[in-house]
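Supplementary Note 3. Input sequence used for the single-chain structure prediction.
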Amino acid sequence: MSWTTEVDQRLCMASGMCAALAPELYRLDGAHAEPVSKEIDEDDLALDAADSCPALAIVVRDGSDVLGPRP
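The predicted structure, written as C-alpha cells, is reproduced below.
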C-alpha cells in the first residue's frame, strides 16, 4: 500500500528541513517545498520530515488517515 504526502504552500516557509532530511521525497521549488511525488512508498523518513517541518506544512496520509506530523 502507498501513502500520499503534500505540502501546504500557504504554510510552507521553505526552511529546507524536509529536503535536507529526505531529498528523495521533498525538494525546494523557489519559495516553497514540494513532494517529489504525491504518492510514496511507506517510509518513516516522510514522517520524520513532517515532524521536523517548523511550519507543520507537510501532511502524510494512509488513505484518509493522517499519519504525520505525529503528535
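The longest helix spans residues 44-52. Helices lie at 17-21, 44-52.
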